[in-house]
């Protein structure tokens, strides 16, 4: 059972106002402030850090079925207690409603004073009433100040925890184990005595210079493959109707957090530190090196944007670099865990997440990615990831895997994710159907191809010679 702390806030009974009773808050929220949100800037920090946007916090709908929410959190392996978080959220709303009550009472008393002053001659009774009203207003102002500070305190503890909630899980996502949807081609049988790591093969064939995950260089035919594979992917995506764009190499903390990542963790992104601001504890919207072919780079293009309804489905992609500090899997090594990789990132926006158009575009992007691997003439399989393997922003994840002969396992070389309206609500990009209705588009995105990972698997298939795929070799011509 969670440990709790008691918070007390109250208004003055003699004014006939609602009393703020003591409320029990989880100690994890009451005492812990190690994480600062870049998406939501509380009122008392607004003068220190500019609030670029206000995320749509749809928590009431999430807790409408609290048992379902807790079940999904458990399936993901999350330690979040939904009921504790619900109590904290209800208390935040409770305090906020009391602030509104105080402000309403303040306005009523102020208007009453104005009404009295409209009289031509003020009687002694009127003057006494004005004096009493001014005293009440002074007391209410003090109460509003106390409640406002309480709200700021809650905004620093409750809101970041609410924003950490993962996306809803799609009904098609397996609860227990991943499902192999399709396997294309045949796994190459490499004799056990000839199995080598792609690093050894690459060095022997003059294709790699590898020192560590940060210092890795492709040489000779490996460079041709990198350029050729990117060209093949670009052509196929263009033919599918997607538009090529150039993404920025850097993203702000609010976009990184909006993408469902921890903007304070050096394990997730390369954080750029300005030495002039190193002592400023309120510096929360920093720059991150993410690469132009990354999810934050594409999301930054649509942050706080209004999208025309006739623009859907909106399909874009970018090719270039992706920067990741550390591998997601401890078993990764060599080209499977380099910090800088050439990649193809795609993004599709559709108006709603629960209609046939969304399903169709998800299938189209998976099919488009399949065509890329088909043209590279390699064995791969398509896997539907389980709930525990999903990232925070994902409701469903379709992975593309290739066989690593040396490690004797399949390696993820690309993926397509359905993320619903998770990004659009956090980063405030929307469309308007009428004057009174604003909709948040659903996002389908993914790194369709990670060139170093594909190259590593191909090298291990043939230790004696690197066979450049025909379609990639066409890049030379």
Automatic annotation (TrEMBL):
This is serine--tRNA ligase. Keywords: Aminoacyl-tRNA synthetase, ATP-binding, Ligase, Nucleotide-binding. The record marks 447 as: Important for serine binding. Belongs to the class-II aminoacyl-tRNA synthetase family. Type-1 seryl-tRNA synthetase subfamily. The gene is 100113588. Gene3D superfamilies: Bira Bifunctional Protein, Domain 2 (3.30.930.10), Serine-tRNA synthetase, tRNA binding domain (1.10.287.40). It comes from Nasonia vitripennis. Residues 235-469 form the Aminoacyl-transfer RNA synthetases class-II family profile domain. Its EC number is 6.1.1.11.
């Amino acid at each position: 059972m969670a440990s709790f702390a008691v918070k007390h806030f109250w208004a003055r009974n003699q004014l006939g106002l609602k009393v703020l009773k003591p409320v029990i808050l989880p100690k994890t929220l009451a005492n812990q402030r190690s994480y600062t949100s870049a998406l939501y800037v509380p009122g008392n920090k607004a003068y220190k850090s500019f609030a670029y946007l206000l995320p749509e916090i749809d928590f009431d709908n999430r807790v409408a079925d609290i048992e379902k929410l807790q079940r999904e959190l458990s399936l993901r392996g999350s330690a979040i207690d939904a009921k504790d978080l619900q109590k904290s959220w209800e208390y935040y709303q409770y305090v906020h409603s009391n602030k509104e009550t105080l402000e309403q009472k303040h306005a009523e008393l102020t208007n009453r004073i104005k009404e009295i002053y409209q009289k031509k001659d003020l009687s002694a009774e009127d003057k006494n009433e004005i004096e009493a009203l001014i005293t009440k207003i002074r007391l209410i102002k003090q109460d509003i100040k106390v409640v406002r500070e309480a709200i700021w305190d809650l905004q620093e503890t409750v809101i970041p925890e609410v924003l950490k909630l993962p996306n809803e899980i799609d009904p098609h996502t397996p609860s227990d184990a991943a499902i192999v949807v399709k396997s294309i081609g045949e796994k190459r049988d490499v004799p056990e005595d000839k199995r080598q790591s792609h690093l050894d093969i690459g060095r022997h064939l003059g294709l790699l210079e590898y020192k560590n995950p940060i210092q890795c260089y492709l040489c000779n035919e490996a460079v041709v493959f990198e350029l050729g594979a990117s060209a093949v992917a670009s052509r196929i995506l263009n033919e599918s109707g997607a538009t090529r764009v150039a993404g920025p190499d850097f993203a702000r903390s609010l976009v990184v957090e909006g993408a469902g990542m921890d903007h304070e963790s050096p394990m997730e992104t390369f954080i750029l530190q300005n030495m002039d601001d190193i002592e400023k504890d309120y510096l929360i919207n920093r720059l991150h090196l993410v690469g132009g072919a990354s999810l934050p780079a594409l999301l930054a293009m649509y942050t706080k944007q209004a999208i025309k309804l006739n623009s859907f489905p909106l399909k874009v992609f970018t090719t270039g670099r992706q920067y990741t500090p550390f591998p997601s899997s401890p078993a990764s090594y060599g080209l499977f865990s380099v910090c800088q990789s050439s990649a193809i990132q795609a993004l599709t926006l559709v108006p709603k997440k629960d209609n046939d158009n969304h399903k169709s575009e998800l299938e189209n992007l998976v099919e488009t990615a399949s065509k890329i691997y088909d043209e590279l003439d390699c064995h791969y399989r398509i896997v539907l990831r389980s709930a525990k393997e999903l990232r925070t922003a994902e409701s469903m994840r379709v992975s593309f895997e290739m066989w690593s002969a040396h490690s004797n396992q399949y390696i993820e070389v690309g993926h397509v994710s359905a993320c619903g309206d998770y990004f659009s609500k956090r980063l405030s990009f929307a469309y308007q159907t009428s004057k009174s209705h604003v909709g948040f588009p659903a996002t389908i995105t993914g790194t369709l191809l990670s060139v170093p990972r594909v190259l590593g698997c191909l090298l291990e298939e043939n230790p004696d010679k690197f066979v450049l795929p025909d379609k990639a070799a066409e890049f030379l011509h």
